[in-house]
Amino acid sequence: MAFVNISATSVSQFSDTVAEDSKQRHVDTSASTTSEITSTRKNLSLQKSYKAFECANKWWKNTVIYEVYVRSFYDSNNDGIGDLKGIEEKLDYFKQLGIDTLWLTPMYPSPMVDFGYDISDFVNIDPLFGNMDDFKKLLRSMKDKEMKLILDFVPNHTSDQHEWFKMSVLRQEPYQDYYVWRSPKVYDGNGQPSPPNNWRSVFGGSAWTYNETRKQYFLHQFAKEQPDLNFRNPLVIQEMINVMDFWLELGVDGFRLDAAPHILEDEEFRDNPQAKLKEGSDCKEDDYSFWDPVFTCNSPGILDILTSFRNVCDEWSLKEAKERVLMTEGYLPLPQLMEYYGTCSNPIAHFSFNFELLGLTKNCQASDAFTSITRWLDALPQWCCPNWQTGNHDQPRIATKLGEDMIDIMNMILLLLPGVAVTYYGEELGMKNTEISWEQTKDPAGKNAGPGRYKLFSRDGERSPMQWDVSNSSAGFSDSGIPWLPTNTNYLEVNVKSEFESERSHLQTYTRLVSLRKSKAWLNGDLDIRVLCDGSVLTFTRIDITSGEGILVATNFSKNKTDVDCRVFQHVPTEENAALVVAVTDLLEYYNEGSSASFANIRLNGRSGVVCKFSVKSEASK
Ligand code: GLC
d(Cα 412, Cα 538) in Å, to the nearest integer? Predict the structure, then answer.
């Protein structure tokens, strides 16, 4: 049995150091390292086992979190932009899928420079999305359906239109030090100021913008319209705690904490060193990933601030005997990411988003997926619950990045590994990124890059309207005729209605997979994960010995047909046809749901997968 460990993931945000054809941003899980390792270990047997992770005892540990990108989900008032009423109208859709938890992207008042992540009032609703009554009504309807609601919490920055910033510019107390202000490094001969240091914005260019009124630079790690708050000022921490209290009192179930590692920067404002770029990299000096953000990302002290946010959740959890959760977003190497969990006695995040699966690229092998999965599980502290994510509003969709034939395979992995699963809207349908021209580009990360390079950075492609049906040219998303981003032309086939009606579809497979999460095998089962068939098949079992229930997942990452002998797994029955097929990928021709399969010989087409249920071999028959 070989236990292969891979050292820390190298991660860069909005990186342009990866191949364009992989359409990958944000995450660089060292593709080259992975494939080197793949080739040297081709003949090794890759196998690991993990004890069950107590998923059954808390609501958030076994939930599927569905990310609703509010602007793009469903437009109830025909202005071309999704809204809160739209989400409420679609709540039954989630119930049909078996999804109980929604994470909403920011719906607060905002000038929409970064589409809601530039907030001008943390405790209100942007009229584009509705009003506070709509929000309360949505929440009530969700509670009636026993659903949970997670909000996006964006403490790192505000909009430059926030009152705090306007007053800070004027040096009005107590707002004068609410933001990170710094005097110019020097003035040139013409009296022109230069920025305090070399820090770059995640969206490209200097992270400093000069303010004529205050005669100082302010820091913005994202767009210049998103000034960073100064978390060395205790008043700012208190403001953010007040924001959390406001929403928790209304009854929300937790927060997804945006851009967590960016909250604090170096106190001495030291220059960031240059990053080690891959050979042939097209990275430019003004790009974020040209620099190693050691002095702008994950600075000492961050964990204390996050702990104060966790304490707020815990107070509310105790007060109302219902657990409120904190999930942190951070693109960091694994050892640093794991620190966001805190310790067993002083926990911080309920979970820190796991982006490992997002690091897979086109033509990835089963061993790459094995590595991504086990690397995370091996790093995870014993007392923590795993989580998995295959997409989000900052990442290209699975169908675009890995290929349409990988949609069901990735959903099988996402939904049947132990722990929380996070699904980005439309991934259950197999939606693809939409081609967006330079003229149509809206995302500041794309616009800053210019017409020649916008495709490397723009996130518009994965934010196109949800594809509901074929009732109009925006796939039933809006009756406006002009949705805020163009609809993908594949909506005639890829849409909720058609996929529900067809016997076999990504949506049908997704729904079957979600329902398996109620089984004892999924809730309590140990995990045994292996790469079989000369590196081509990723296979795992979830077995609960107590109940005798088992699940087998076999996914073929290669393009060739193969038969897998799964009798290598412990406790599986060896008699013929002992496995009941419960879900298949659309490319699998050998089985249908309800047919039986034999562990000695699981038959797979290229890029296909199957999920089977079985009764664990009894001790007596061994
Ligand atoms: C997070 C969000 C991203 C946003 C950025 C700035 O990374 O996911 O969409 O642009 O923070 O708020």
Answer: 11
Q: Which atom of ligand 1 is nearest to the CA of 394?
A: 9
The question of whether 329 is a catalytic residue gets the answer yes
Kind of pairing, strands 254-257 and 148-153? parallel
Return the ligand 1 atom nearest residue 262 CA: 11
Pocket test for ligand 1, best of 120, 255, 257, 258 (most atoms within 8 A of CB): 258
How far, in Å, are 65, 132, 147, 518 from residue 55 at the CA level?
A: 14, 34, 18, 11
Q: State how far the Cα of 484 lies from the Cα of 479, in Å rounded to an integer.
A: 12
567-590 pLDDT per residue, tens:
999 999 999 999 999 999 988 899
Angle between helices 366-379 and 31-40 (to 10 degrees): 110
End-to-end CA distance of the chain: 22
The residue whose CA is least distant from atom 2 of ligand 1 is 258
Q: Which of the following is catalytic: 88, 118, 329, 394? A: 329
258 is a catalytic site residue = yes
**How many angstroms does the Cα of residue 49 sit away from the middle of ligand 1?**
35
Instruction: Report pTM.
Output: 0.93
Residues 335-378 pLDDT 10s: 999 999 999 999 999 999 999 999 999 999 999 999 999 999 99
Maximum CA extent, the chain: 89
- Whether 24 and 361 have beta carbons less than 8 Å apart is answered as yes
Ligand 1 atom closest to Cα of residue 157: 12
Question: Which residue's CA lies nearest to atom 3 of ligand 1?
Answer: 394
Calculate how far, in angstroms, residue 221's C-alpha sits from the geometric centre of ligand 1: 10
- The candidate with the shortest Cα–Cα distance to 226, out of 201, 246, 197, is 201
φ, ψ for residue 216, nearest 5 deg: -145, 165
The ranges of the chain with pLDDT < 70 are 1-44, 619-622
Q: What is the C-alpha to C-alpha distance for residues 102 and 94, in angstroms, rounded to an integer?
A: 9
Ligand 1 centroid from CA 68, angstroms: 14
In angstroms, the CA 338 to CA 596 distance is 41
pLDDT tens-digit map of 227-267? 999 999 999 999 999 999 999 999 999 999 999 999 999 99
User: Left if phi > 0, otherwise alpha if psi is -120 to 50, otherwise beta: which for 448?
Assistant: alpha
Alpha carbon nearest to ligand 1 atom 9, residue: 394
Structure tokens at 551: 């699940």
Rounded distance from Cα 225 to ligand 1 centre (Å): 13
Centre of ligand 1 from the C-alpha of residue 202, in Å: 9
Which residue in 354, 156, 407 sits closest to 261, CA to CA? Answer: 156
